[in-house]
Amino acid sequence: MPFQFGDYLLDPERRELSHESGPVAMGPQVFDLLVYLVTNRDHVVSKDNILDTVWDGRIVSESTLASHINAVRKAIGDSGGEQRLIRTVARKGFRFVGEVKEAPSNSAHPAKPVPAPVVQAQKLTLPGRPSIAVLPFENLSGDPQQEYFADGVVEDIIAALSRNRWLFVIARNSSFTYKGRVVEVKQVGRELGVRYVLEGSVRRAASRMRITGQLIDATTGAHIWADRVEGTLENVFDLQDQMTESIAGAIAPQLERAEIERAAHRPTEDAYDYYLRGMASFHRATREAIDRALPSFYKAIELDPDYAAAYGMAAWCVFWRKLNGWLGDRATQIAEGARLARRAVELGKNDAVALTRGGHALGHFGGELNGCIALVDKALVLNPNLAAAWYLGAFQRIARGEPDIAIERFQHAMRLSPLDPEMARMQTGMALAHMLAGRFDMALSWAEKALRELPDFALATAVVATSQALAGRMEAAQRAARHLHQLNPELRPANLQDWIPFRRPQDLDLLGDGLRKAGLPE
Fold it and tell me: Do 399 and 519 share a domain, yes or no?
């Protein structure tokens, strides 16, 4: 049933708000909030009531709720000062106080009918890979001049996501046809033929800017991810770059995680699905999980012999076995790892994932360090928001004897993907870099964080044993060394060069001395 108040007509079924002058553009949650306030106008609604209904019970900050209330007021010609239609009741909540009439279901403002949609309603077949549309972000600032900033961020996010070769991204000219329109996410998914939609808002307060974004599965309406980034307007272009990087860097792992979950629940003979199944096991990082991951990557290669990223991930599985002492026939598996890594970089000259995984693995299978660094650096040119390239490039800097440069790269990777499934590997890298720089307490702190996630990670355990020993805490060092020997019985202080390809002799000496003092057998 439509509702009429003043010169406005609110139609919940059509999800339209119109005025005498024409349709009023509103974001989906702003529209839902208005409907909730109008339909519950006979009483005050609390913040909890609003969150349960509009945000499905998710935790939302006070500022986010306030910005949405302000956006509703702006849409219906009200303000926080006047509160003619929406009144704030101190410490209680909000109430819609305007006079509302229920209108016939066919009501409309005849003078200025709602224009026909720019995009014709049609259902497109979903691509064979993950697909996403980034909708224009809503400007909640009350300042029309901020439109350029919001549009610029969205355009940059589209460009950044397009660097992921595994991702199908709708072009800017198509997604921007929805600017200023009230549409449902499912409708966008049908009309653009995408599985995922990113929507968001931009809000300015004095010299600060805040962007919120949420990733939605357009086929089900389920929320996958939501977050916000903030910054100052000292340099607007730097801020735009920072926000683009943060959002694009966070979304890619969330999309991969959603696709992994989806692939796990259906039978398939598709190479990409086998790749996803391999990634699901790979992220668990245990010996048993890697034993499941590697055959999945081999199956993806069998179905698609030119699948560069699958070669890269298979090579990385072999490298992970080597790092943790899980190799069986050592010579045969190292030769196979090298073959897979070389094939990844040959096939994946323009594939950031293949260059990252293959280039890093090759450095542990006899590849020349600077050449392998160049491969991972090229991956960052192809996709500057790929967290794996930043953190594996950091490990390469450690091997070259540049721990402080490595720390900067690890920090950047963590900022790009703060919920990354490989976070324990990044934390171990931070620990190793601090240890080589002589900061043993800092190294111990990072290594212990990694071990909480991966308790049997040999490299993190080695950092603990070495740092404790060199800091003079021998009992803890010996305990860690015993655990390391159980994890990798073949590891000796004398054969560390084959374990980690340090270029500087002093780095090998420091690790070797620490492990000897900790009691690792010779």
Answer: yes
